[in-house]
Amino acid sequence: MNLSDQEYIRYSRQVMLEQVGEQGQITLKNSHIIVVGLGGLGCPALQYLAAAGIGELTLIDDDVVDLSNLQRQVLYRSNHIGKAKVEAAEQQLYGLNSQVKINAINKKVEQVNLVKLLEKAGLLLDCTDNANSRYFINQACQQAGVTLVSAAAIGGNGQLAVFNFNQHKSPCYRCLYPDLEQQDTALNCQNTGVFGPVLGVMGSLQAIEAIKLLVQPGQVTANKLMLFDAWQLKFNAIKLSHNSLCPSCATLTG
Ligand SMILES: [Zn+2]
Question: Would you tell me which CATH number, out of the four given (1.10.10.1020, 3.40.980.10, 3.40.50.300, 3.40.50.720), belongs to the domain 31-253?
Fold first, then answer.
């Protein structure tokens, strides 16, 4: 399948990149990415994925747009307040690129048969903000053998990690954070605050890693935790390894 003239024009600056090229653009067109969580991370990530010409995007979130979201959730406009985030996002993304097929699922991720959905997707972006959803997503991606691109942000700090579950014995999100439940209620954006552009940085990094996974899989920084400090303007990387006490990996190996 070749690109149409319109597609050549739309994606010309991307096709010019030697890392993408025409073949890479066709690969993006034939790809399906699931994005869970349509908040401050999901909004910028989705904008770049739709703009880049990912063929199919599945959006999962059960929240509605609130006035207090607009400081950082850049897909939404004031007239979206009260509307389901998946609907508002679908409308905005369709306006940006109507060639992208969008599946909007207005549910909590825990109520979705995610393992089944992952059978039809190349990768998943975790843009959620709570431990339960993160553990649920991690386990589903592990079971399905689908790569997970995970990010989080709080205050002026962000973090990013890619878990290549199609590789044998990849560490998982829960190897890194085996016991998040207790901290979760103490530390979230609702009571701690978050610097809006940090979410833009981290969501954009998720889109970067997702696109790279599709067109240049060898270039992805798997098994590393990238830490971003906005106030110091610093990035740090920590190597990730398996945690032999990880309950999620234990379930998988039976
Ligand atoms: Zn694990």
Answer: 3.40.50.720
